[in-house]
Amino acid sequence: MQQSDIETDWFARIANDDEQAFRQVFDHYWPQVYGTSLHLTKNPEQAKDLSQEIFIKLWENRSKLRDVKNPASYLYILSKNLVLDHLRKRVFDPSNIEFLIQYFQVTTQTPQEKLELNELKAVMEQAVNSLTGKVKDVFALSRQHGLTHEQIAAQLSISVVSSKTYVVRALQQIRKYMETHAGDRLVIAALAVVSLR
Hints:
Helices cover about 80% and strands about 0% of the residues. The chain is mostly helical. Helix 2 packs antiparallel against helix 3 (about 45-60), helix 7 packs across helix 9 (about 160-180) and helix 8 crosses helix 9. The radius of gyration is 22 Å and the shape is elongated.
């Protein structure tokens, strides 16, 4: 029996609730799954936690494993997707969105950093430009012109609470835009930026 057949058999057995087969898959694929997680996160502890999550997800969705023909490829894709989903949530957390916006307004980046982050900055600008109505107006006055909520409220004839609410909405909309429009490479670039904090 070839190794690929053995691995496919493990998956079929896991689909039938075979815990021993799951242990064999865990032992056999741990280096691959951990390596993928570490490559993407650059953080050994986080990579270990995410790798454990990946195997938990594999067990929880074991009924789908019966038809998997290439277990190594399946686990790589599962690992990559779970890690990137985790990174997207972390990178595009509202407090990190604030940091990214401020970061791109700083002009002291090296030429290399500017080149690497140019595409990410473009997506960030598109996200900000996708805002509409009062949300866009308040966000521009707050983040691009540096006005306080009191000044914005006076200028737009709205309450201070409304000004704060519009900024929160803007950050939520920017986060959603970035999550859907930033490719894998951009998520990793953004992670490098927010790791500077």
